[in-house]
Write a structure and sequence with these properties.
The structure is a single chain. The chain is mainly β. The protein contains 4 helices and 44 strands. Strands 23, 24, 25, 26, 27, 28, 29, 30, 31, 32, 33 and 34 form a 12-stranded antiparallel β-sheet that branches. It is globular.
């Protein structure tokens, strides 16, 4: 594919759940196997996870996988969690659960040479492909998987006898089905391939590509933006085919440290009232059980989407993980000699009955498009290893950078507030190339003083360092241009994210007992060249600066508040760089800078609704270092031009590295705060900052970056 890669975030080991299922004696098919016998499902929401605790009076420790290492997953008739509405049609949202195959005698079929030629489950025999990759399963009459039903499907074969089967009813016109069956087998990857006993003195970066989600594909739903609820993916339609995605990265640090994972995807299609947008971020890690084999990947699903410019944004939460073909305590779910394949998913029943399972969860507002029984979902797809590269093949540096962040806060389905940073230290970001982590803090303020409760918000993301999370499994740093982070953990406990609001009365309130759904991803991980091209804007080619996207869904509860304070941010922007020290600022001469601005607009419509969308514009800054003043101009931002005078102030040990000013133009007015940053050894070689503008039923908030341009008229230090 020519599309850009996606970034995925690492997550802590999920609380995985299991129950036991037995077939109905009258109809011993897998479609009936998922009916619960004598089981009570108690489901609660805890942190990232939708926990399903199953209490069962029958004997045993849960589903047993055939000795040959074949396991099955199938669509249950219904999914009935305790704290969520019943999912009447689990197949419509991709939910499957593990099935007990032992009663059917699942086994491999080999020829006289010992070559694997088929998998037999009861009376059904599925051919094992002779070639690698995807092979069609021609229609056949099933006697076990689904009694007296014609099935068809697809099988993907990988190295070392890995195979993943997808089967559904053979419907007229090759239509997709809600009820599906998956079979999985393969040779587990040895732990030493990921965690070498003698350690390793260098970083390795693995890159995987995802195959289609076969159930989505057969229902004519795009597989891009892998972590979207299938119903939401159908809403987006063909737009998803233009998404920018990363590969699924696994970063293996030296000395046997925990490997981190990252996948990201972003689509922004259209402009103004016609725009739709979605961002996926998955951060996770590879876990080993200490035996020779037994590797699994666990992650956190984060992101947000807007299916219509007039709809409020919904936040994406929940967990991700890998299918296992074994149930002997090894949870082996990476396959092949070199970890060649795995199946990525969530929402399946697995592990001992005393544990819990987690699903995708969409946290939507009152104008969301999902019905109550549709907010839980899952997806299932094979990952194929593309290659393994040494870390030194990438630009990977440990550094601390500072900057600004901005976004439109949605406190309710219909309200919007302009929040942004006003000082260069309001965004702090630290990368650790050795550990493969990134972390920091975002502070944004109610610059228009329009929020009746909140003066400012502070959000932690990622790992340790600058007040962020002390866990090193909540972020992944692939290289200087590709990284992402999330916030997760129960507030008030060791390692929890530092997420607070400061009220208008000055009271600081910690986030409540759930994880904030905060995410941050670099723009280079999910580039949006078409966004700039469609707007006729030139994107800044300033590699010495960082910028990207962030969002959150928070819920604050305190006795001093009249009610819970819930805030969503979808596709906020952030910028960061090596801020020029005051003593290094030029004191004579002048310079000009060009770059771009990106931000979010909230605009009123004639029918009383509001549209919210992303916009970009061109940036120009001209500054006289001797006079400590200049001009800043943003043009073609959502069809508007605005500009103003900016000024710095003399500091005790030099000239201020920051500037501020008022903006006006195109029937809007606003303000800006910015700073000068270094371009390598060139002091004040760039600028970055944040801005806001407002007019009649119009608000916008964003960030900008710019590089100093060569000019014969330029004077002063370089």
């Amino acid at each position: 594919s020519s599309r850009a890669p996606i970034v995925v975030l690492p997550r802590p080991k999920p609380i995985v759940v299991t129950s036991r299922y037995s077939p109905d004696g009258a109809a011993p098919g897998i479609s009936e196997v998922t009916k619960i016998l004598d089981a009570t499902i108690l489901e609660t929401a805890q942190s990232d996870f939708i926990n399903t605790v199953v209490q069962d009076d029958t004997e045993g420790d849960g589903p047993n996988i055939a000795e040959d290492g074949i396991t099955a997953f199938a669509t249950p008739p219904v999914f009935d969690p305790d704290d969520f509405p019943i999912v009447e049609n689990p197949g419509n949202v991709g939910i499957v659960q593990q099935v007990d195959l032992t009663q059917f005698g699942a086994e491999f079929v080999r020829n006289e040479e010992g070559e694997l030629i088929a998998i037999r489950v009861g009376e059904d025999e599925l051919p094992f492909p002779s070639v690698l990759g995807e092979t069609t399963i021609e229609p056949f009459r099933s006697q076990t998987l689904d009694v007296d039903v014609d099935l068809r499907g697809t099988v993907f074969r990988g190295e070392d006898d890995f195979a993943f089967y997808y089967a559904q009813e053979d419907l007229a016109g090759d239509a997709g089905a809600d009820e599906v069956i998956y079979l999985l087998t393969g040779k587990p990857t040895e732990v030493r391939k990921i965690f070498p006993a003698e350690g390793r003195n260098e970083t390795l970066v693995r890159s995987y590509s995802f195959e289609d989600d076969y159930q989505k594909r057969n229902r004519d739903i795009a597989s891009e933006m892998r972590l979207l609820n299938p119903i939401i993916a159908r809403e987006f339609g063909d737009v998803l085919e233009g998404a920018s995605e990363t590969p699924f990265f696994v970063v293996q640090p030296p000395d046997g440290a925990v490997p981190k994972t990252l996948y990201a995807g972003l689509v922004i299609d259209g402009s103004g009232n016609e725009q739709v947008s979605a961002i996926n971020l998955d951060i996770g890690f590879v876990n080993a059980n200490g035996n020779d084999s037994g590797l699994e990947i666990v992650g956190r699903r984060r992101g947000s989407y807007r299916v219509s410019a007039t709809n409020s944004a919904a936040a994406m939460e929940g967990s991700t993980g890998t299918f296992s073909a074994f149930d002997d305590g090894d949870f082996a779910s990476l396959y092949g000699e070199n970890g060649n394949n795995f199946v990525y998913t969530t929402g399946v029943v697995r592990g001992p009955a005393s544990e819990a399972q987690d699903l995708y969860f969409d946290n939507q507002r009152t104008d969301g498009v999902l019905e109550e029984g549709e907010v839980l979902s899952s997806s299932t797809m094979v990952a194929q290893l593309n290659g393994v590269r040494r870390g030194r093949a990438f630009d990977r540096t440990s550094r601390i950078v500072k900057g600004f962040a901005a976004g439109i806060v949605e406190p309710s389905a219909f309200g919007t507030r302009v929040f942004r940073s006003t000082e260069v230290g309001d965004l702090s970001l630290e990368t650790n190339a050795t550990n493969g982590t990134v972390g920091g803090l975002i502070t944004v303020r109610d610059v228009l003083e329009a929020d009746p409760v909140i003066r400012s918000m502070t959000l932690a993301f990622g790992s340790d360092g600058l007040g962020g999370d002390v866990s090193d499994t909540r972020s992944t740093f692939v290289d200087d241009s590709t990284f992402g982070a999330v916030a997760s953990g129960t507030p008030g406990e060791p390692g929890s994210p530092q997420t607070t609001i400061t009220t208008n009365s000055g009271r600081v309130i910690d986030h409540d007992n759930s994880s904030p759904a905060t995410y941050l991803v670099s723009s280079d991980a999910v580039p949006q060249s078409q966004l700039f091209e469609a707007a006729g804007v030139t994107e800044c080619t300033c590699a010495f600066l960082d910028w990207g996207w962030w969002g959150t869904a928070t819920d604050f509860e305190d006795g001093s508040l009249d009610q819970n304070v819930r805030n969503n941010v979808h596709l906020g922007t952030w910028v960061a760089g090596d801020v020029t020290r005051e003593q290094d600022m030029p004191t004579v001469g002048s310079g000009s800078y060009e770059g771009h601005a990106a931000g979010t607009v909230s605009a009123g419509n004639p029918d009383g609704t509001r549209s919210r969308y992303v916009a970009v514009g061109d940036l120009r800054v001209d500054y006289n270092f001797g006079a400590r003043s200049g001009t800043l101009e943003i043009t073609n931002f959502d069809g508007r031009d605005f500009s103003g005078t900016i000024a710095g102030s003399r500091a005790a040990d030099g000239v201020s590295n920051q500037f501020n000013g008022l903006l006006a133009g195109s029937d809007v007015k606003g303000s800006t705060n910015g700073a000068f940053v270094n371009n390598g050894n060139r002091m004040a070689g760039g600028v970055l900052g944040g801005f806001d503008v407002r007019g009649r039923s119009y608000r916008a908030s964003g960030s900008y970056v710019g590089a100093r341009i060569p000019s014969a008229a330029m004077t002063g230090p370089n």
